Amino acid sequence: MEIAEQSPTRREARRREARTRVRLLNRRPGNVGSLLSAAMPFALAVVVYVAASGVRLAENPDDKLLPSLSTIGETVERVAFEPDRRTGEIILWSDTAASLQRLLIGIAVAAAVGLAVGVPNGLLPWFGAFWSPWVRAVSMIPPLAILPILFIAFGIGELAKVMLIVLGTAPFLMRDVEQRVRELPREQFVKAQTLDGTTWQIALRVVLPQVLPRLVDGVRLSLGSAWLFLIAAEAIASTDGLGYRIFLVRRYLAMDVILPYVVWITMLAFLLDFGLRKLNRRCFPWYGA
Amino acid sequence: MALVDVRNVWKRYPGKTVLENVHLKVEEHEFVTIVGASGCGKTTFLRMILGEVEPCQGVIELDGTRLVPEPRADRGVVFQRYSVFPHLNVLQNVLVGLEFSASPLLGRTFGRRRARNVECAERMLDRVGLLSSAKNFPAELSGGMQQRLALAQTLITEPGILLLDEPFGALDPGIRADMHDLVRELHRELGLTVFMITHDIAEGFSLGSRLLVFDKPRIDPHEPDLYGATITFDLPVGQRPNMDSVVNGINAGQEA
Question: ipTM for the complex?
Answer without folding.
Answer: 0.87
